[in-house]
């Protein structure tokens, strides 16, 4: 489908009172660009400051001197903004609805008063373990309320949390603990998901074999399952919380003090520790949550992401709680006990905003509409998507079957690095086009550059790489421990701009269409992954000589993982070995990195200088081998014939 044939959807009726309307959008956007100091100076006041800021913006995108500071002389505490300041009016309002994996278990409604008590107790537990301001705390927890308590407890005492997705392997966990030099890791005994359990504590035990032996292990006894226990190292968090004081004074923090580190994949090397700030990040998370989802008092907000990803940070925890919202945390999966679970939860808790990933929509779409039709979804007002481009077919299904044509769909484009939405419709203001993230959020200056000449593409339509022309408060500040890498990754290739790594098209109406990554990052079921990480896991296996990994179009996952593998001399390719490699990658990185297709190859297509021509591998993986382009520079052109003949994707 070309963009010309895609119809525009008007803002549905009933959004006249939205925070942002078509008129106010243009007015505010223009102001945010012409007077960022004034605009963000005013927006910053949505937080409570212990010492107000006098300086708003001090940012520099020049390679070599990159420095990003917002509200730099302001003093605040993030947990006070997410908890304490709501107590006067909202002590008895539900802050978090916890919906457990098993629908037969009762849901929990945690009020702001209870949230406060738990965060304070957990903060005291961390203090009693010797955690101080600036120390790193790794959180390896499932989607349970203790994850929220742990994040906010860190914020309360000025410790920097780094959440590691509970689906990651012991190795991946150990690497992150070591990279940020964490003093403790907070985990749980076991984590039920979709009726099956992950042994988080035993994963953590395995990880801690590869870290300093001073790292403490705080264990949330969530299921009560038996685990090993290392005296002197392991701590029973719940028992300690019970004994701790329910009051812990918040630590005054500078706006630029790091709030958290979150590891994410890049095109090269090991995952980067993305550092977010306390002040600017929180302003941006709160503001985007309010405007993009038109969040109003009394709404029940549900973001289905995991807290292990940035979406969970900004739109389950920090944004909603800074706004005094009711946020839903779901421990389970969309397809268990059946494909109606999401809609059952929406119905049960009267959800008003529902925010999920296109991969989930496609998976549920494949099960048929009867699972949706069974449930009353009349409370839904706004639907959102994030993580990857949404195909118009999935968009239309979401709109017709879930939103019944009366809920605006916000297709939010952003990244771990950006802290919050950068390009997104606003429900009361923006006409939508299925598949387009539409227009920039306030203060965001998207720029389309020609990938080769780096020339700015003025006028519409335009196509090229997507960069951002100036800073916004939610922008990452640095890569943990490696500012040089931060500058090289985002500011070197296109001088003066933040380079997103995404390609895009801007249509005749000025709407943005994200076309996907232009680097070696792939997006599998909304999970971001570096092909280099999967390659290095494969070559770590002693039967593998060489590996190259690319993405290919996958009907449900968006992209699947396609691995080309050359075995060591004398090793026979067998089905057992294929299974062995799949299991190997699962254990090296985690289940989300398991290759979907493995093709054995006697060699890789290389230039005479020995560089693998990934362009060719991508084309073959896409089953588009008729257009390989010029292969004359290859050292051994006949490798290509073998690759085509034995290709795995013939769909
Ligand atoms: C992709 C997730 C198209 C994009 C918040 C980006 C999207 C990467 C969208 C970041 C969208 C995210 N439309 N593509 N609405 N949202 N992406 O860091 O390629 O896990 O660069 O952050 O996901 O993934 P990350």
From TrEMBL:
Gene3D superfamilies: 3.30.300.30, N-terminal domain of ligase-like. PROSITE patterns: AMP_BINDING (PS00455). It catalyses: acetate + ATP + CoA = acetyl-CoA + AMP + diphosphate. GO terms for molecular function: acetate-CoA ligase activity. Transmembrane segments: none annotated. SUPFAM superfamilies: Acetyl-CoA synthetase-like. Its EC number is 6.2.1.1. Residues 533-611 form the AMP-binding enzyme C-terminal domain. Its cofactor is Mg(2+). Pfam families: ACAS_N, AMP-binding, AMP-binding_C. It is an enzyme of class 6 (ligase). CoA binds at residues 193-196, 311, 525, 586. Keywords: Acetylation, ATP-binding, Ligase, Magnesium, Metal-binding, Nucleotide-binding. ATP binds at residues 387-389, 411-416, 502, 517, 528. It comes from the Bacteria. Residues 84-471 form the AMP-dependent synthetase/ligase domain. Residues 25-82 form the Acetyl-coenzyme A synthetase N-terminal domain. Acetylated. Deacetylation by the SIR2-homolog deacetylase activates the enzyme. The keyword Ligase applies. Mg(2+) binds at residues 539, 541, 544. CDD domains: ACS (cd05966). The modification N6-acetyllysine is found at residue 611. Catalyzes the conversion of acetate into acetyl-CoA (AcCoA), an essential intermediate at the junction of anabolic and catabolic pathways. AcsA undergoes a two-step reaction. In the first half reaction, AcsA combines acetate with ATP to form acetyl-adenylate (AcAMP) intermediate. In the second half reaction, it can then transfer the acetyl group from AcAMP to the sulfhydryl group of CoA, forming the product AcCoA. Belongs to the ATP-dependent AMP-binding enzyme family. PANTHER family: ACETYL-COENZYME A SYNTHETASE (PTHR24095), ACETYL-COENZYME A SYNTHETASE 1 (PTHR24095:SF14). This is Acetyl-coenzyme A synthetase. It comes from Paracoccus fistulariae. The lineage of its organism: Bacteria, Pseudomonadati, Pseudomonadota, Alphaproteobacteria, Rhodobacterales.
